């Protein structure tokens, strides 16, 4: 029996790989541009939350308590997160609206989610693959908290979905449908940026973004996940067993991830009760003036950990 994974178009695969590499380079370059524009540096010192209690004599010399620019005095991990969120926000805007446009203009992507192919949608896949590899690289180089585990899991699952399309030249419609979730990611990243910029959660801008985040979450994450689960149940079982298994793992994993993420968003916004609500982390300059030496460093790191979880 000849496997569909054996009959690859090596020339097309090679071209796709070179295009993914170009996309990766563009996102890496944009990451450094954002870092340089916001902070005047392309690299940040990183630290690990896993061993933060052991390094209690770390110097806080990078914090200037007289500065009126809170971003410049933020700990390196927070500055890295700001730059990372900015690039992720840019990708979400591009890929989300690109996916929506592709589905509207080429409805066959939804009518035949397995076999229909389209050049414009394929390029969307190329761009998003380059971004995911970039973000995966950026996380491995800079993120040293427990947050990395779930992010790596998400990225690997999505890359498996993309890789299945490259290997079989199928499931383009499934992938593009899944990329509609990026329309919600626009507001997820925007909300994270507001948190990192210390915007008051009771302020009008934050409340508007939080509301749009929840609304788009229901429409573009939960509804899309539900539709993909429906497709899995009604259609995917007709395919060969290993393709059915791959689509099942990918779709169910993303659905579970979205459910957990929705719970966290609702809890962070106080919609599940005050006890589960998380506030905006304190300004690092305030922390520095209230505490000194090792205690200040510990509190800075602790606040960042809250930021990561929220």
Automatic annotation (TrEMBL):
GO terms for biological process: membrane assembly; phospholipid homeostasis; plasma membrane organization; regulation of membrane lipid distribution. Its main location: membrane. Keywords: Membrane, Transmembrane, Transmembrane helix. The keyword Transmembrane applies. The keyword Transmembrane applies. GO terms for cellular component: plasma membrane. Residues 77-276 form the TLC domain. It is a multi-pass membrane protein. InterPro entries: TLC-dom (IPR006634), TLCD (IPR050846). The chain crosses the membrane at residues 20-38, 86-107, 170-188, 208-233, 239-266. It is found in: Membrane. This is Bm6963. It comes from Brugia malayi (Filarial nematode worm).
């Amino acid at each position: 029996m000849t496997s569909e994974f054996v009959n690859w178009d090596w020339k097309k695969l090679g071209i796709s790989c070179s295009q993914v590499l170009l996309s990766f380079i563009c996102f890496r370059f944009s990451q450094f541009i954002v870092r340089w524009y916001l902070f005047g540096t392309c690299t940040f010192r990183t630290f690990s939350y896993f061993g933060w209690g052991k390094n209690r004599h770390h110097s806080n010399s990078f914090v200037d308590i007289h500065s009126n620019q809170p971003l410049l005095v933020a700990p390196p991990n927070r500055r890295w997160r700001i730059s990372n969120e900015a690039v992720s926000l840019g990708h979400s805007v591009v890929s989300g609206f690109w996916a929506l446009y592709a589905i509207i203009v080429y409805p066959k992507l939804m009518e035949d989610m397995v076999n229909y192919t389209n050049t414009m949608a394929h390029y969307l896949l190329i761009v998003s693959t380059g971004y995911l590899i970039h973000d995966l690289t950026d996380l491995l180089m800079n993120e040293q908290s427990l947050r990395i585990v779930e992010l790596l899991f998400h990225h690997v699952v999505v890359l498996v979905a993309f890789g299945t399309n490259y290997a079989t030249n199928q499931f383009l419609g499934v992938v593009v449908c899944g990329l509609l979730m990026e329309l919600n990611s626009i507001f997820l990243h925007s909300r994270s940026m507001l948190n990192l910029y210390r915007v008051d959660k009771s302020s009008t801008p934050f409340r508007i973004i939080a509301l749009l985040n929840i609304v788009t979450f229901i429409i573009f994450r939960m509804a899309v996940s539900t539709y993909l689960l429906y497709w899995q149940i009604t259609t995917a079982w007709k395919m060969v067993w290993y393709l059915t298994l791959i689509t099942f793992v990918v779709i169910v994993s993303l659905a579970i991830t979205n459910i957990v993420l929705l719970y966290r968003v609702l809890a962070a916004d106080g919609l599940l009760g005050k006890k589960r609500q998380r506030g905006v982390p304190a300004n690092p300059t305030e922390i520095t003036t209230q505490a000194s030496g090792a205690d200040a460093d510990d509190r800075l790191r602790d606040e960042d950990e809250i930021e990561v979880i929220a």
